[in-house]
Amino acid sequence: MAPSPDPNSVGDGPKRDEATTKVPTKDPKKKDDKKEEDLSEEDLQLKQNLELYVERVQDPNPELQKAALESMRQEIRASTSSMTSVPKPLKFLRPHYGTLKEFHKNMVESDLKKLLADILSVLALTMSAEGERESLGYRLTGSEGDIGSWGHEYVRNLAGEIAEEYTVRQGEEASIEDLMDLVQQIVAFHMKHNAETEAVDLLMDVEDLDLLLEHVDRTNFRRTCNYLTSAAKFLPGPDDMLVLDIAYMIYIKFEEYPNALQIALFLDNMQYVKQVFTSCTDLLKKKQFCYMISRHGITFELDPEMVENEVDREMLQDIVNNTKLSEGYLTLARDIEVMEAKTPEDIYKAHLLDGRASSGPSADSARQNLAATFVNAFVNAGFGQDKLMTVPSDSTTGSAGNWLFKNKEHGKTSAAASLGMILLWDVDAGLTHLDKYFHTNDNPIIAGALLGVGIVNCGIKNDCDPALALLGEYIDKEDSSVRIGAIMGLGIAYAGSQNDQIRSSLSPILNDAKAPLDVIAFAALSLGMIYVGSCNEEVAQSMIFALMDRSEAELGEALTRFLPLGLGLLYLGKQESVEATAEVSKTFNEKIRKYCDMTLLSCAYAGTGNVLKVQDLLAQCGEHLEKGDIHQGPAVIGLAMVAMSEELGLDMAIRSLERVLQYGEQNVRRAVPLALGLLCISNPKVTVMDTLSRLSHDTDSEVAMSAIISLGLIGAGTNNARIAGMLRNLSSYYYKDASLLFCVRIAQGLVHMGKGLLTLSPFHSERLLLSPTALAGIVTLLHACLDMKSIILGKYHYVLYFLVLAMQPRMMLTVDENLKPISVPVRVGQAVDVVGQAGRPKTITGFQTHSTPVLLAAGERAELATDKYIPLSPILEGFIILKENPDYREE
Amino acid sequence: MGFILTVSVKWQKKVFEGIEIDSTLPPYVFKAQLYDLTGVPPERQKIMVKGGLLKDDGDWSAIGVKDGQKLMMMGTADEIVKAPEKAIVFAEDLPEEEQATNLGYSAGLVNLGNTCYMNSTVQCLKSVPELKSALSNYSLAGRSNDVDQTSHMLTVATRELFGDLDRSVNAVSPTQFWMVLRKKFPQFSQLQNGMHMQQDAEECWTQLLYTLSQSLKAPTSSEDSDAVKALFGVNLRSRIHCQESGEESSETESVYALKCHISHEVNHLHEGLKHGLKGELEKTSPALGRTAIYLKESLIDSLPRYLTVQFVRFFWKRETNQKAKILRKVDYPLELDIFDLCSEDLRKKLEAPRQKLRDEEGKKLGLQTKSSSKDSDVKMTDAEAPSNESGESSSTAAHQEGASSSEKGTHMTGIYDLVSVLTHKGRSADSGHYVAWVKQESGKWIQYDDSYPSIQREEDITKLSGGGDWHMAYIIMYKARFVSM
């Protein structure tokens, strides 16, 4: 220690030593240096001054006290604060904290006492013991005033203590008014200083997010809302809804309607959607909203309140009804030059396999032809042309009729329906092509034509309701295959529409004692799709009765699983609303009770990321049961359904499933590949791909089958070369096993779905929104895959067509103000999470510049590479209307 | 009361505007109107109004069509799809035996306990269609007296087994055949530790073929009577020469297989065959009045349709009292030319067909016929004298007269293609494992490992040449390549 002539310091010597050691410093050498420098002229002066002030504060003379306190405050405020070291005045005052505290206690109520409290509050920042919340205590007794002047660190610390205090007081049910004043100040301070995230955190802690509305402004609302929406994914209900509500209000406040609409759709709040339309006055923007609604796949009627002009309204309704989807998709296809139809052989690429592929058997194999039918349907989906079904039928050889008849019995249903898939979204052409099949006497063909009509109309609404008009006639026909075709067609065409007319014709079937089980099962499924996520009581009731009416034997049938599934779909994503029905399900026959339980639970919490439900379901998977229990399958799939909403939960679920795979029983293992397929649908993650590839050679053929189908699902619409190669090898590995080969073919068809222009992912709008109908379609297929042998490999293979509900072009198509496609340069790259990041970070990385229309892969994001236009939606997916930028100057 | 409505009708991609409906007339009239516009007959029109179909006799006021409403019509004048007149036959519907042919290869054989030697032999022999047809002609009644009961039974069992293999999809259990085989050849019933012992496949092969040749001999006609001999028999003409006395004699014999002797110099099948056709024998020399060493050199005098080659891999080791195995690698080709193992007479016969074959191959490769004849033997120049091709063929045809009377127009070429390989894996003949590798008519190679047939690649077949512990060829069979003239 340097010689110090100051007598004052002698007494404090050891004490100060102690204090300095407390100060966090990284290495002792530095500390020594500091000690040397500590006593530089300046510091010494400061230290002496502060000590003097401390003494003076204790002086009985109020004048002196005041002057001392003022000076002390000056010193503290003047010192620059930083995160790494304690400001000098605070450091030098540390030894005196105790003394000042003691003195403060004995002071009489006065301004001076408040002033001292202020200073103590700041000192408590470094001195107060954990959990004491002294800083907050002194703050509350101190003078009111600008707390921001004490620096960021102080405010941040205060916010933390408020949150703690709040929970304590909530427990004691004490008043929180004094805290709220402080909160107001802190929030205002944070919002002004680019610390929106901290303001939001504090408000969430004190459960008063409404305050946020007063403090957001044009500069920070975007970042605030961004944080709110991403935080919502991790909040337990009902907090998440609250948070999104606030975000919605902020967006509306700042007229950021596209974002507001997104949140309204997320909340599934039609009132909000309507509000967006009524608040916005720009017709062009409304068109953009319509595109967004149509992508989400919900039924939405515009009324005069939203759009006054009738002509405009009709045009907007057309967009909502998706009538232009086919056109846009074909524009994309032409631009990418993939219009040329592909045959199943183009997909199988048997010539790449050395000699091991079987040498085209002399007779047609019905199973292989059926596989080819599906492959052809998936690959040419939406293109309107193919080489098997749409070839002109007047040519004598190789005509459409011929391929149709190369399928056996129920296979003809799928073949006729495949025409619907090929002409997907193009209602006029589709109906024209399907018409000829209505005039035969062959029931499976009629059934296929009916199903085809449903598929063509998937997601498309039309004033004339052609699907209902045509299919309605056949619901009550004699032949059950025709009935199923009509019922399933309606389910696909009107998914999510909540159409009363269909309900009144389908509901009676559920409770018809004479109806065969398969008709009832498909009726339940279709009603579940039409009323997906509606919580409709009446439909639920009739399904519950239908389930109760089933005999013991019927409950053992594979198709019975569609009844609980239909019921579950009614509550898709509706969380607690399911509870009443779940209660009723406990009274079911024990054969189906648990299956129903799991299905309801998993559907209700689908896409919520609810950790507690994930744990519940995991516990179910972990049980080792006697044979014959089938409820673990839906539990595993449910796990994926709940966890699929956000990336972190998704990764955790993948890891958990790996564990389940190792320790689970056989029926659990069979469902695991399907769950993986759902988690990474149309998103071929390499790790998952490897796991599935390994499982595709599993000794249990059912595990292998579901792994193969899942390989198709994760690669769906990606043309992923690696998966394609794996499947090709599997096709030679399993060339002798007709069932497994069929699965391989289906998976190959899925991977090349829409020649790589489609996606099955139910998520869109930067993974925020979950299309309920899309998820319903995928989940139905997965449940069917739980009993592959009796459903997909049996005579109900057409359930594969439920995937059409999830099929969407993975495109970004820019249109001008007249909705004509225009080509502009865009950058497409990997999306970067920028939530809560400082400044204006780049939102994409590793980008390439293309001209629209472009394809977007999973996890990719696009941004305009020109200033010439302004996009009307910040989320560049699907149809984007571009407005010319008035400020644009040609360089 | 009547009123007139104006509606528009959408049909396919077209919209017909301003169609008038007179509500007093039934909708059928409206449909007739549309028939004029679209050419779709009314009975095939489906007109959709608000989620329902327009009935022919419906009431306009009840349907609730409004003025200016858009209607949608579906319907085409296309031909209605008809099922093809000839129903399509699906593989799944076929009886089991026809499904088998669809696979492109026949079933495997169940191992009945160390019977892989027998299974692989049967599979190899089954690949000879001529043998199969000869067997199918063998009738139960047509049994000649000079064939004993057991031979007859074995022949019948063979026929049955071949038939079963062709019909079945799943592996066949050769129980009956095995029983008869053991009855006929009791040496195959040897037991060891209560189990039937592994046997030498070559012995099985030879015995079976011998039996078949006996029983398939047609009792009446003398010529071309022995079907088996016609297929597999190789006539050898040997010159026996004694160096000491200078004596020389010649003899002919007929064998069913050529032997490929394996010594240190032999690296290739060809060398082994040459080696096998030369031999020393000891016999009494009439000239010297004592036993002397004779050299025997054999040449092939007539070619079989199927040339069987046995690799002499096993020899009796006195010390261990065991059949030991030579592991030496001996390469064999997929295409074997035995021209230089043939006798002079035979060579002459072969020349013309060989030339023809070369020409054809040359044509295939896009070469001129003339240029391909450069490295042929002296005889070629003679044949080339009448420079045009027709002349050439006529001259050779004369040459060939009487050579092969049975198959007119087709001629042997001395070139053979590999069709089946019987391999052995292991260190001694009576242990290890036998497997058959058979080329199908489709050109694919199938490995018959007892009951499991599996497809193999052609390049892997030549890798069975030994030199390690992998399967190595023991008996291989070549099929003659013919040329038609």
UniProtKB/TrEMBL annotation, chain A:
<feature type="compositionally biased region" description="Basic and acidic residues">
    <location>
        <begin position="13"/>
        <end position="37"/>
    </location>
</feature>
<dbReference type="InterPro" id="IPR002015">
    <property type="entry name" value="Proteasome/cyclosome_rpt"/>
</dbReference>
<feature type="domain" description="26S proteasome non-ATPase regulatory subunit RPN1 C-terminal">
    <location>
        <begin position="835"/>
        <end position="888"/>
    </location>
</feature>
<dbReference type="InterPro" id="IPR040892">
    <property type="entry name" value="RPN1_N"/>
</dbReference>
<dbReference type="GO" id="GO:0008540">
    <property type="term" value="C:proteasome regulatory particle, base subcomplex"/>
</dbReference>
<dbReference type="GO" id="GO:0030163">
    <property type="term" value="P:protein catabolic process"/>
</dbReference>
<comment type="subunit">
    <text>Component of the 19S regulatory particle (RP/PA700) base subcomplex of the 26S proteasome. The 26S proteasome is composed of a core protease (CP), known as the 20S proteasome, capped at one or both ends by the 19S regulatory particle (RP/PA700). The RP/PA700 complex is composed of at least 17 different subunits in two subcomplexes, the base and the lid, which form the portions proximal and distal to the 20S proteolytic core, respectively.</text>
</comment>
<keyword id="KW-0647">Proteasome</keyword>
<dbReference type="InterPro" id="IPR011989">
    <property type="entry name" value="ARM-like"/>
</dbReference>
<protein>
    <recommendedName>
        <fullName>26S proteasome non-ATPase regulatory subunit 2 homolog</fullName>
    </recommendedName>
</protein>
<comment type="similarity">
    <text>Belongs to the proteasome subunit S2 family.</text>
</comment>
<dbReference type="InterPro" id="IPR016024">
    <property type="entry name" value="ARM-type_fold"/>
</dbReference>
<feature type="domain" description="RPN1 N-terminal">
    <location>
        <begin position="50"/>
        <end position="352"/>
    </location>
</feature>
<dbReference type="Pfam" id="PF18051">
    <property type="entry name" value="RPN1_C"/>
</dbReference>
<dbReference type="InterPro" id="IPR041433">
    <property type="entry name" value="RPN1_C"/>
</dbReference>
<keyword id="KW-0677">Repeat</keyword>
<dbReference type="Pfam" id="PF01851">
    <property type="entry name" value="PC_rep"/>
</dbReference>
<comment type="function">
    <text>Acts as a regulatory subunit of the 26 proteasome which is involved in the ATP-dependent degradation of ubiquitinated proteins.</text>
</comment>
<dbReference type="Pfam" id="PF17781">
    <property type="entry name" value="RPN1_RPN2_N"/>
</dbReference>
<keyword id="KW-0832">Ubl conjugation</keyword>
<feature type="region of interest" description="Disordered">
    <location>
        <begin position="1"/>
        <end position="45"/>
    </location>
</feature>
<dbReference type="InterPro" id="IPR016643">
    <property type="entry name" value="26S_Psome_Rpn1"/>
</dbReference>
Automatic annotation (TrEMBL), chain B:
<dbReference type="Pfam" id="PF00240">
    <property type="entry name" value="ubiquitin"/>
</dbReference>
<dbReference type="Pfam" id="PF00443">
    <property type="entry name" value="UCH"/>
</dbReference>
<feature type="compositionally biased region" description="Basic and acidic residues">
    <location>
        <begin position="353"/>
        <end position="364"/>
    </location>
</feature>
<protein>
    <recommendedName>
        <fullName>Ubiquitin carboxyl-terminal hydrolase</fullName>
        <ecNumber>3.4.19.12</ecNumber>
    </recommendedName>
</protein>
<feature type="region of interest" description="Disordered">
    <location>
        <begin position="353"/>
        <end position="409"/>
    </location>
</feature>
<keyword id="KW-0833">Ubl conjugation pathway</keyword>
<keyword id="KW-0378">Hydrolase</keyword>
<comment type="function">
    <text>Recognizes and hydrolyzes the peptide bond at the C-terminal Gly of ubiquitin. Involved in the processing of poly-ubiquitin precursors as well as that of ubiquitinated proteins.</text>
</comment>
<dbReference type="InterPro" id="IPR018200">
    <property type="entry name" value="USP_CS"/>
</dbReference>
<feature type="compositionally biased region" description="Polar residues">
    <location>
        <begin position="387"/>
        <end position="407"/>
    </location>
</feature>
<dbReference type="GO" id="GO:0006508">
    <property type="term" value="P:proteolysis"/>
</dbReference>
<dbReference type="InterPro" id="IPR038765">
    <property type="entry name" value="Papain-like_cys_pep_sf"/>
</dbReference>
<dbReference type="InterPro" id="IPR000626">
    <property type="entry name" value="Ubiquitin-like_dom"/>
</dbReference>
<feature type="compositionally biased region" description="Basic and acidic residues">
    <location>
        <begin position="372"/>
        <end position="382"/>
    </location>
</feature>
<dbReference type="GO" id="GO:0004843">
    <property type="term" value="F:cysteine-type deubiquitinase activity"/>
</dbReference>
<dbReference type="InterPro" id="IPR019954">
    <property type="entry name" value="Ubiquitin_CS"/>
</dbReference>
<keyword id="KW-0788">Thiol protease</keyword>
<feature type="domain" description="Ubiquitin-like">
    <location>
        <begin position="5"/>
        <end position="74"/>
    </location>
</feature>
<dbReference type="InterPro" id="IPR029071">
    <property type="entry name" value="Ubiquitin-like_domsf"/>
</dbReference>
<dbReference type="InterPro" id="IPR028889">
    <property type="entry name" value="USP"/>
</dbReference>
<comment type="similarity">
    <text>Belongs to the peptidase C19 family.</text>
</comment>
<feature type="domain" description="USP">
    <location>
        <begin position="107"/>
        <end position="481"/>
    </location>
</feature>
